[in-house]
Amino acid sequence: MSLHRPANWLVTYDITCPRRLTHVFKTLKKHGVPVQYSVFHLQVSAAKIGGLMVQLSHLIDSRVDDVRAYRIPESAWKVTLGHAILPDDILLDSSPEQP
After folding, report:
1. Is residue 60 in a domain?
2. Residue 28: inside a domain, yes or no?
3. pLDDT tens per residue, range 12-21
């Protein structure tokens, strides 16, 4: 995996303070798409996710909050149960738009 090649990531969080939660949500919203409560899909490089995690570390209280990033393998599969926030026919592509 190249540090600069975009990959798919899931970022999850559990934040105890509503104020910090708002800051984390707004920061992640700039980089990805919310796919479930406290779960975002991002399409960024490993270098970018590393920088984002550093940025998030300044917004949370590491004694009580939890933020995690999981790289999704290219050949991943999914199984879902229950009511989804997003419709099934939406293609998740959170890469930045090209001018």
Report:
1. yes
2. yes
3. 999 999 999 9
